[in-house]
Amino acid sequence: MKDGWGREINYMRISITDRCNLRCRYCMPDGIECVPRQNILSLEEIQAAAICAAGLGIRFLKVTGGEPLVRKDCCRLIRALKGVAGIQRVTLTTNGVLLEPVLEELKAGGIDGINISLDTLDRAAYERITGKDCLNQVLSAVEAAVKLHIPVKLNTVSLKLGEENWRKIAELARRLPVDVRFIELMPIGHGKDFPSIDHRLLLSELKKQYPGTEVERRFHGPGPAVYYRIPGFLGSIGFISAVHGKFCADCNRVRLTSQGFFKTCLCYEDGVDLRPILRKGLPVPEQGHFHWPEDRKPDDGELQTRLMEAMRKAILEKPGAHCFEHPGEITEAADMVSIGG
Fold first, then answer.
1. Count of H helices and E strands in the chain?
2. CA nearest to 114, candidates 132, 133, 95
3. What's the pLDDT tens digit per position in 169-212?
4. Where is the Radical SAM core domain (predicted)?
5. Separation CA 66–CA 336 (nearest Å)
6. Which terminal CB of the chain, N or C, has fewer other CB atoms within 10 Å?
7. Contacts of 201 (CB under 8 A, 6+ apart)
8. CA-based Rg of the chain, rounded to a whole angstrom?
9. Residues with Cβ < 8 Å from 149, sequence gap 6 or more?
10. Residue 274 three-state SS
11. Which positions ≥6 away from 151 have C-beta within 8 Å?
12. Is it true that the peptide bond before 55 is cis, omega within 30 degrees of 0?
């Protein structure tokens, strides 16, 4: 489906929880007031939204959080999403701490790729950033995923930690067939307090450090990263430059939050709440998890009709561009962990 600006919308990021086992300084340093569990979508509700999205032309799904692996049915959800007609790729973004024990299950479920957040290879710096001493678990998970031949991308927020930091992370792509992606921190939530490295400068430094660096045209996924190949490297280096490399003209994505809000741009609060549609006529507990009725199917025709009407309208009204370069115009006040990373 095309939005009101003529862009093909084929990619949806699905947050399945607002909870996380780390406390990254630029995300949720002191934790957050998590929403009541009954407000979090059930596996079947997420599946219903994915079925509708596929009917609207969505072909690529990314499962995120919070930290998606703190949710015990995450692997089961991956398998269910892989079974949705029309969906071509299902991938996962994780901090990697809980990843290694479930890699075999994810592979069996058909996972098409895993993005692992990793901002530094310095153990002390990692603990300062995340609040936990878990670097070794993450690095072990990276190696294990590569051995299982699962495509891996390492997501590195471009924090100002010095040239040695980004260079060491980039070097992982020399010996491992992984994509190392540097990501400009967007001015949302706590991210406003952590200025990111300007990727124009980082790319210039990369080219000085590694002569012969060239743009790579190979398809790496439906996201906005621009990739580079360095001679002698097994993997590639990518840049996601939301602030200094605005890619709104080619934006192809929408988001579903863990509470069921269908969001069309990170910068604005626009979108539509799908939870009342998904739960119309159903009892919701005052506490604890919401349980989908066994006799109701995610592909129920009446439900899908209502979902499609709401989602289609939101896509047609998707903003033409973000305004991160003008912080005063941003209307989204929620933290990224509440929206979905």
1. 10, 12
2. 95
3. 999 999 999 999 999 876 555 545 566 678 899 999 999 999 99
4. 4-214
5. 8
6. N
7. none
8. 20
9. none
10. coil
11. 112, 113, 114
12. no
